[in-house]
Design goal:
The chain has 152 residues and is of the alpha/beta class. Helix content is 53%, strand content 12%. A five-stranded parallel sheet has the order 3-2-1-4-5, with helices on both faces.
């Protein structure tokens, strides 16, 4: 099994929140965890926001960032290549997607086509993006639509 984590799922590997245990369990049992290269900037931004809002203390923030930077090379990262951008064009016309959400969805589609026959599970806790993944036929965690939509 391959897992593709959008940023809302990837952050759960580092910041304890609802769904963190599920993401960790899928991460452990997957052949590899994939994400888009844009998730690096999004995750770093999410960690900084959690620190500014007091969700993470100073030392906890430094530890989270350090762990993330150390583990980042272990993720299978998809570049924003022409194959992804071609899908972005189609998806933006089809759905009401924000830019990075379109890149995540397009990256997942490209990954699924490259690894046909391999089970692919998508982790996404953004309700709106979860809907689009569902419409595209992906197996999702969580299995039920998340309650909130990210505002970033």
């Amino acid at each position: 099994m391959i897992c593709y984590f959008d940023t809302s799922a990837l952050v759960k590997l580092y910041v304890e929140e609802e769904g963190s245990e599920l993401v960790a369990a899928y991460s452990r049992k997957s052949f590899f965890v994939a994400t888009s290269r844009v998730a690096y900037a999004e995750a770093r931004s999410a960690f900084a926001r959690a620190w500014r809002e007091g969700v993470l203390g100073d030392q906890e923030y430094r530890d989270v960032v350090s762990n993330f930077k150390e583990e980042w090379p272990a993720f299978f990262t998809l570049d924003v290549a022409d194959s992804v951008l071609q899908r972005v064009d189609t998806l933006i016309d089809k759905y009401r997607l924000r830019g990075f959400d379109a890149i995540h969805l397009a990256s997942t589609i490209v990954l699924s086509r490259r690894n046909e026959g391999e089970e692919l599970v998508v982790g996404c806790w953004d309700a709106r993006l979860w809907d689009y993944y569902h419409q595209e036929g992906f197996s999702l965690i969580p299995e039920e639509r998340p309650a909130r939509t990210n505002q970033s």
